[in-house]
Design the sequence.
């Protein structure tokens, strides 16, 4: 009985002082490398909040951690789903909180890394409560998508909710339709429902952001895309061609090469579109992440020891 009491006291103490270190920033900025160094320093594990890296079928095009990087620190939520499976941000919130809670039983610090702002916020703040809307609205929007294309929906969203147009994954029809159905059904912008009431978590969060000049970010993106092509991205896309209708594959790096395989674009143009759309994605990432005024931002070239020292001071 005494032993159980001591164990409970220790667990309560750890949970009271539990800290999630969230590493954020635009794509290709170096988040993975920093998160591994943090995990090694704090002797802990990493939760991935990159919604594209969940899928084991999509390794090259999502710039998922390499085998050596996965071996350097234990990762969770990497390649644990198939593109055939439906996996929502709500599913991720529940599973990530459960995993973090389990890890905090023996660790004071857990690392989370990812560039998917909605998924990061789902863990740190909880999902927002949206009003119920008429299902017919989604049916009508899907019909518009089929008849007039995604551009028509994007233009509609820009008129109804400019803020969401600038921050959500505007090239993802699912996200655009969701924002539109809430805006239309409620008569209020989708963005007005975001971050109204943060959920209480049993841990505190320290947000660490990596930044660089826009030209540097864009150069790093272009270099990464070239590397992906050299690493066999086209072959990966060919293997997934029969599943191109799935929502998981309606993403940058895959949809452009599907157009090449369909004979609509040349390979050179498809690659240039991947680079362009990834740059646009990085811009939206920064817009989303800069909403959090409590983030501690560092230049991407900052020595990890400097960042670790800052975190250590915050933990104290």
Sequence:
């Amino acid at each position: 009985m005494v032993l159980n009491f001591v164990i409970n006291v220790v667990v309560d103490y750890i949970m009271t002082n539990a800290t999630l270190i969230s590493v954020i920033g635009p794509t290709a900025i170096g988040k993975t490398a920093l998160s591994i160094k943090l995990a090694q320093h704090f002797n802990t594990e990493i939760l991935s909040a990159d919604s594209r890296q969940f899928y084991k079928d999509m390794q090259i095009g999502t710039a998922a951690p390499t085998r050596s990087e996965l071996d350097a620190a234990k990762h969770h939520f990497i390649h644990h789903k198939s593109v055939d499976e439906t996996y929502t941000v709500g599913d991720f919130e529940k599973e990530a909180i459960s995993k973090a809670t389990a890890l905090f039983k023996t660790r004071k610090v857990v690392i989370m890394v990812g560039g998917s702002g909605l998924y990061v916020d789902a863990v740190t703040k909880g999902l927002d409560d949206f009003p119920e809307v008429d299902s017919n609205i989604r049916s009508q929007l899907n019909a518009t998508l089929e008849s007039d294309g995604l551009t028509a929906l994007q233009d509609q969203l820009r008129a109804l909710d400019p803020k969401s147009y600038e921050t959500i994954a505007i090239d993802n029809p699912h996200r655009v339709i969701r924002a539109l159905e809430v805006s239309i059904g409620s008569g209020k912008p989708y963005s007005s429902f975001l971050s109204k009431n943060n959920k209480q978590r049993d841990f505190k969060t320290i947000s660490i952001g990596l930044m660089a000049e826009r030209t540097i970010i864009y150069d790093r993106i272009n270099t990464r895309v070239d590397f992906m092509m050299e690493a066999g991205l086209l072959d990966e896309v060919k293997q997934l061609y029969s599943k191109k209708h799935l929502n998981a594959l309606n993403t940058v790096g895959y949809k452009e090469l599907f157009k090449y395989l369909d004979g609509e674009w040349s390979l050179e143009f498809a690659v240039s579109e991947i680079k362009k759309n990834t740059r646009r994605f990085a811009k939206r990432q920064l817009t989303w992440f800069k909403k959090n005024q409590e983030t501690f931002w560092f230049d991407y070239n900052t020595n990890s020891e400097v960042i670790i020292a800052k975190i250590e001071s915050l933990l104290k």
